[in-house]
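Structure tokens please, single chain.
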Amino acid sequence: NVLTGHFLVISSMEVDASGNVKYGYYDNADGSKGSDNKFSVNTANGEITDDTNPPVGGIDKYEVSEVRTNQ
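Here you go.
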């Protein structure tokens, strides 16, 4: 996948009372495991993104482009 230049580890999943799905993650770029590291799922278009505070310079959000299973 040419879009995949950075790897994150999904660590949790939560669904709120409104049915919104979020995935917590660890970011190996800065070692962060903070509670603010959350991907949101857009059920209308299928995008999984986080625009709260991506630490990699020059980008405004993380967008999931590939999912791999743990082996």
